[in-house]
Amino acid sequence: MTEGSAAGAHADKELLAVHALEAGYGKIGVLHGVTLRVAAGEVVALLGPNGAGKTTLLRTLSGLLPRTAGEVRFDGRDMRDAGPREAARAGLVHVVEGHRVFTQISVNDNLLLAGYDLPRGERAARVDEALSFFPEIAAKRLDRGGALSGGQQQMLAVAQGLVRRPRLLMLDEPSAGLSPVLVDRVLDVVTRLRAQGTAVLLVEQLIDKALAVSDRVYALAQGQVVLSASAAETDLHHRLERAYFGA
Amino acid sequence: MSATTSEATGIEAAGGRRFAALLPFLALLAIGLVIPFVGNEYWVLIATRIAIYWVLISGLNLVVGYAGQLAIGYVALFTLGAYTTSVLAAGNATPPVPAFAALGIAGLAGAVFGVVVGLPALRLRTFYFAISTLGFATIVTQIALAWQDVTGGGIGLPGPTLPEPFDTVTGLLYLCLAFAAFSTWITANIARSRFGRALVAVRDADVAAEATGISKPRLLVLVFILAGALAAVAGGLFASLQTYITPDAFTFELSLLFFIAVLIGGRGSILGPLLGTIILTVLPEIAAPLAAWSTFLYAALLLVIVLAMPGGIAALLDFRNRKPLPPGRAIAPRPDAVRTLVAHRATPDILSLRGIVLSFGGVRAIDGLDLEVRPGQIHGLIGPNGSGKTTTLNVISGYYRPETGSMMLGGHTLAAGRTTDRAAHGIARTFQTPRLIGEASVLENVMIGGTIEGRATFLEALLSLPRHRREERVMEQRARLALAAVGLDGVTEVRADRLQHSELRFMEIARALMQRPAFLLLDEPAAGLSAEEIRRLAALIRAVSAGGTGVLLVEHHADLIFDICDHVTVLNLGRILAAGTPGEIRVHKEVVSAYLGA
Amino acid sequence: MLASILASGLAVGAVYALIGITYNTMFATSRVMSFTAGQLGMLGGVFGSLFILKLGLPSILGLLLMLAACALIGVMTEIVAVRPVLKSLEQHLYVLTTLAVALLIQQFTAIQWGTEPQPFPRLFAIGSGVWDEKYWLPVVICAVTIIGLEYLYRRTLVGRAFVAIAEDNFAARALGLPERNLRIASYALAGAIGGLAGFAGGQLLLAFFANGPLLNFYGFIPVALGGLGNNRGAVIGGLALGLFQQAANFWVGGIFSSVAVFTLFIIVLLAAPQGLFGAAASRRV
Question: pTM of the predicted model, to two decimals?
Fold first, then answer.
């Protein structure tokens, strides 16, 4: 990877630091003390079997879910009272699972809404910038969100995240329900973001594809980090298998 | 050994508590009886009004407090009863009818219209139902106003004159107190019976209620009949108290008094709403300047109750559930108790699915699934997210109707989409998130599992006849056994929403075991449990299958699956990826890669 | 005859439609059906009469003050009755809290304003017979409101944010939209629309404290017919209801017309609980 050195330059600057995080839904605890970190400009894959708590972790980080215990720091700032709006303003942007774009309004409006908090004059430029990553939906910017295919909706969802010019973009299973070509297309954007110096926290089921675009990997199982490794490490599959199924 | 003694003491203690619970009612009745001797006629009238209101509210309490149906327009049935009694007694439309016969006919009319008003509740939810009862109340008043030759229109007509000795102020009070005492007794009987528990289950956990075989429509119709009859009788008594009735007497504010009395009293209680009725009726009387503001105060009280004290008066009086629970209590299942519980329900039948297909919006959630669950076997169902595991359980228990495919249990076809007949086929289940009846005790939650076995009719329960009482005893004993089996016998009397998450999971299993199922479907029972609790769960599931019950287990904890299953089916994208023994599956290449997502 | 049925039917129908839109506007951002919708309609009439007739303010000033006051009541509803129970939407506590607030409003009005219906001022004194102001005013105001709402939802970012929240509240929050502020704004808007309904129909319904429950019921029918959140459905449903009611009133008389309306309402609800233009129910398990 040619961009490797560029990313490496600010890799030591800590962007997101999560310590002993606990969260869940009502009485049900899902995260039991998650500790991890993401440096500026690096791509980190978050793997794990279903029910492990990956989605819950992202939702807690972006303030969609309250935390029960533990600490989240983003760029040195304590995110205790930050809701999703504050998180997005700080540059921590979450693209939720299941390409949930708004089907009743146009592609352009979907993107304008993502920039709701931006100064009025800047919105159009930011929308164009985000669309430059996805020429295939730029051509459909006046169509309703509901008229897009599943893959295009996923691109739109990622583009919504990009409107905010995130410093850390959290993507929750961007490949779900997409054909292999589209998966590559979406993950290609991750590589481009990395080249720009944007950090990405990527939740993915497709391990090999995720590893191909990532610097580091965390694996989650039953609400805890069970593995932390470099994406380049050999034998990663066996270690994951052991981490999930027990020795 | 110890189990039987603890059961015996448990039942004795329950008897003692029941007497203690009766005391406040007897005290209130005694106060009502002595009022003519200590108070003036004004207070006798107020006591009579309280008794009359309570006849209606005791029935409405079952509708609102127990079944959770927001019927805000019950004044409609009250008006109906008042006018029916008065019109019949006056002979405006028919030859004059004796007052008590007119009251009886009004009760029948109330029963019929109680169902008519309630009918929308069978299909509509909350706000829709509330609005439809509001509409009904508006219309009854309009009819009373406009149907002049019968109702006297705005001028009104005289109320019925009751025969001696009820034609005096005191006589009428005693009559109304007798009605009030009787309606307290019958509604309390229903509330404590399997019908009452089922009402609360339909309110708080309708999905779980269906899985235990409770049919909401039948249940609600029975309660609407009872509440309607009581409301109309109350109306008739009210007419004779008023001596002359006009539509003005039946304002919407009166309807709100009824409704709010129940809510202030607290859901799922008899004493609370009774106290609520007394407070709301007496409050404006003792503070005369408040009279104009009374409805305003009712509304403010309602707001405060909902926001700050959702349990109402009943929660204030519920001292037992304010004691802290012992911390660090462990769940200790007793597999031997499981065996006594389920053994005699074993069946040679196989639960089989053939060619099941189900899509959601073009996506095939299940795509041609064949599955066989054998008695006495633990069958694991695993797969990545969205592979169709829980959907399969929901097809089996009837929540989803597959497009094609068939389900058989032994020689019988399981009708697709019929949730309430699964319990009768011996199929029980738990849910991904425990479906608890939060305001009922743990014991009552479990007793729900025995609802469909009850044979005593609504009428037998109403009058607490011997067969009903016998059945209740048997059910309670079995529920205690089921709780001992899952290791929750220490918290039987505790309100279920006070339990920890892991305890709720075991409570749901106890409810399923209460059904003595031939097949038990478990949806992620280990989610949120500690490692030690998972080990105990494993032993419990083994004991259930050893008793001959077939278990279908959906689970993410791979180690639990591989540890206890006899057979494992792996789903991916709604299809079977692999099937075999845990040993075979564990080394299956495609399974491992599907799990790892490679 | 036909002309007068048409005139009065369209007029009351327009008022019902506006109350229906009031319900929808609150529902869109909060999933809450509020009993205050009818009370806002009642207040529109009372405030109009108070400001213009009692205090003698110019009509336009009276209208603006009424809008501001009703918007404020809308915001108050959100703070007192909706926000505290949003987390427990499943338990439908909002039915009780909004009912309580609606009653507080009604009783306060009864005590401060009086329990007798009081006249509502003629604003333009234009038209007579079936072209009387009291018939055309509600229709005109309803039309203006709809055009205004269409502009809001289609042409402004705030309006599209409302649409987005109504469609997928979770995704809207995840996107960083100020969901709470937008909800408050929609309650203010709903308050103004509800007030406008009562103001428009003031000459028909008078300034009467007990109009609330009636408007609650008749304003809800268009929503039930058109499907929750569907403003176009509410307008069609409202006008149809108004015409049906006035026609029944004329041909079979007062009581039976209300019986007919009620029966029709129940039948439609039982046959099509999602409304005639509504979407299917969500999954339960």
Answer: 0.88
